[in-house]
Amino acid sequence: MNPAIQYVRDNRKRHLDQLTELLRIPSISTDPEKKKAIGQAADWVSSRLKEAGCTKVKIHKTAGHPIVYGEWLGAPGKPTLLVYGHYDVQPVDPLELWHTPPFEPTLRDEKLYARGASDDKGQVIIHVNALEAHLQTTGSCPVNLKFVIEGEEEIGSPHLDPFIGENSKMLACDAVVVSDTAMFAKGVPSICYGLRGLAYLQIDLTGTDSDLHSGTFGGAVVNPANALVAMLASLKDANGKIKIPGFYDNVRKLKAKERKAFASLPHSDSRYKKALGAPALFGEKGYTTLERTYARPSLDINGIWSGFTGEGAKTVIPAKAHAKISMRLVPDQTAKEIARKVKKHLKAIAPKSVKIEVTPLHGGEAWLADTDHPALAAAGRAMKGAFGRKPVFVREGGSIPVVGTFADVLKVPCVLLGVGLNEDNIHAPNEKMDLDQFYRGNEAAVLLFEEMGAGTPGGKKKKK
Amino acid sequence: MNPAIQYVRDNRKRHLDQLTELLRIPSISTDPEKKKAIGQAADWVSSRLKEAGCTKVKIHKTAGHPIVYGEWLGAPGKPTLLVYGHYDVQPVDPLELWHTPPFEPTLRDEKLYARGASDDKGQVIIHVNALEAHLQTTGSCPVNLKFVIEGEEEIGSPHLDPFIGENSKMLACDAVVVSDTAMFAKGVPSICYGLRGLAYLQIDLTGTDSDLHSGTFGGAVVNPANALVAMLASLKDANGKIKIPGFYDNVRKLKAKERKAFASLPHSDSRYKKALGAPALFGEKGYTTLERTYARPSLDINGIWSGFTGEGAKTVIPAKAHAKISMRLVPDQTAKEIARKVKKHLKAIAPKSVKIEVTPLHGGEAWLADTDHPALAAAGRAMKGAFGRKPVFVREGGSIPVVGTFADVLKVPCVLLGVGLNEDNIHAPNEKMDLDQFYRGNEAAVLLFEEMGAGTPGGKKKKK
């Protein structure tokens, strides 16, 4: 038995207890009242990196939340792998839908329930555990490691790009690994080679100076809530096609080869629908479910609010109406281009009876890896070793904007080795991590370091 | 000088202090947590009726909030006037937009700011003050009086109709007077002869079992917020016409005479727009602003909520989306008919990818009085005496469902003698009552009793 594998097996309880500690910290990056928790989470990560064997551990201040850095460079001549992850988490509302409090990690049915269990605390930590396993058993590690664990991923990583730019020498490496995605399914390990981008905007409409009585004034003035629903409804047609001028201009067409590969994945619409509890699936006509989420852009209302939302009936014409909308983007759309087009279109269609403000809140670029790169093959072998099955190559509908930055600034490949599951309820109530996924994740990271450190590391810079 | 008029002038401060006391009680009828305040308000009204000289004062329990009754029947042979009003008030959110707390009545620029100042505490009380004025100065009152002051007007008076039905003998009268409307404008007294009805519904859509990550799932499933805005947007066309099948079937056409009368009122769209702070007015094409609010049905979103509504960006596909909508109705639409048609239509247009629930919350019928009735003439003379100008005859876009009930059950005319102003911000933050309106209102009530008690009372039952 591989001693590092034996080590993570022997230390399952300790590693789980440590994760539980981290999950108790309510490090919601978007909430200004959680600044203290953010600091606590950064401190925790910093201590854990030191404990695992990292040197030069430092909490780098930014204008926002800090970035924790640590490294282990004790394998001269071996490739260097940069592990990226985040210690911040999504908000927790609607709180009343959580079966147990989001920051009181709770074990049920071999699953650990807590905000951040899968996204991303429970995933980033597997690499720290793997470093510890190698060092504690052999005194060394097959690869050099650099850790960059930030606190603003859930708000678009506004200070990470400058950090990478300013510290590109410190961060120089042969490959980046990110564990912040889901496997294709439980029992179906996967390597993700594509991510969608994101453009997120807030729309604020104002009608009158004050809320009005809907009897006295109903029919006389525009109701900004009515105006807002009309504007939002017009953004998509009945076939799920987005109607914003120029929206599809730069969308890269799906290749026949990819469509074939997606079609061969063990996906079932009826199982998928049942798992989500959806009465029916719906999306852009002419594309399968996987094609729509992997490789076609989408537009969703993430939040809408106006007027009276309490119990009972209040007969008011609201003065204001608000919505948060976001578009998932695919190559070769850019967040900036789409935000500009959407803002322009919304201003053009707003009725003159309302004032409109459109504020871009968040953006990130889509990303596609070269599936032939040896780093991806090495990751594939590690996943096979840990999960007992050759991984499938998939894309992911979500966005990890920093992946594009690493590719651009450090000029290295990026490996997305996710051990979460789609049913982990990330960004939703009752987020969880399956214990089995966590334990196998630790083993996958152990094996990844070995695979990358052996033979021709996939992480080597391609000079071409 | 009329001694009762002199009395209300001498007692302005006392009457204002009393109103202030009542306005301190947060009697929000729709809020289950305000049950105690409802009881306090009913007690206050009961004490005040006794103090003013009423007998048989009683707080009648109902399955909901109590109805306060009191009477003064010391003028045998004279007509009996029933005064209806309500001690409950609307909710106060958005609380942050109030300049002073809604239940801490505050005087600014000769206006009293508080929830309920105009709707209806500050209006119903003028009749109690007027009874007191007559009794304290002459030992008698020109008319017999019955007071019915309820606590559920703002939630559709669910227990008032049964109360009137069961107590029709006790409530027998020659006319009903309601002060719960606004004058046409400051300096332009008016008598209201028409009200719109109301059908109010809540719509709840459910997509998936749980909120979803908008990256992983965006494009795969229907977003109930997107479905809701599409459904709501389809209810009206770009000309403000309501597209629900059969909605206009029973709408009584405006008579040329009424259109002419409305057109002659001292209304200015540009002043109206400016007063509301609206960038532009908007409503059903082919009708003037007054025609739209007085005599055409309307449809408004009163509240909408779904997904993330906090600060920042949360990339979620909400599991649920909700809206409260209401239609103002005109003769001869009925609340029941319209609620049924709207519910049926919403269920028909809901995509099969969401579950839908539609719950009627509130309803009331439109009402139109006979403008030739002598009771309206008597009220006109009282308003002229108090406000120094002959009142104009107007309709009102709001709804007072009980007016229809009084007309149907007691078979008597109803006089809507409102002393509020359109700019009173009823149902909105910073509700207020102009002190001048309140003081003149007391005088209008004093004169109304005299006018109704003298000559051929307008309140006499018409036997035909």
TrEMBL record, chains A, B:
<dbReference type="GO" id="GO:0046872">
    <property type="term" value="F:metal ion binding"/>
</dbReference>
<dbReference type="InterPro" id="IPR011650">
    <property type="entry name" value="Peptidase_M20_dimer"/>
</dbReference>
<dbReference type="Pfam" id="PF01546">
    <property type="entry name" value="Peptidase_M20"/>
</dbReference>
<keyword id="KW-0479">Metal-binding</keyword>
<feature type="domain" description="Peptidase M20 dimerisation">
    <location>
        <begin position="193"/>
        <end position="352"/>
    </location>
</feature>
<keyword id="KW-0378">Hydrolase</keyword>
<dbReference type="InterPro" id="IPR051458">
    <property type="entry name" value="Cyt/Met_Dipeptidase"/>
</dbReference>
<keyword id="KW-0645">Protease</keyword>
<dbReference type="GO" id="GO:0008233">
    <property type="term" value="F:peptidase activity"/>
</dbReference>
<protein>
    <submittedName>
        <fullName>Dipeptidase</fullName>
    </submittedName>
</protein>
<dbReference type="InterPro" id="IPR002933">
    <property type="entry name" value="Peptidase_M20"/>
</dbReference>
<dbReference type="Pfam" id="PF07687">
    <property type="entry name" value="M20_dimer"/>
</dbReference>
<dbReference type="GO" id="GO:0006508">
    <property type="term" value="P:proteolysis"/>
</dbReference>
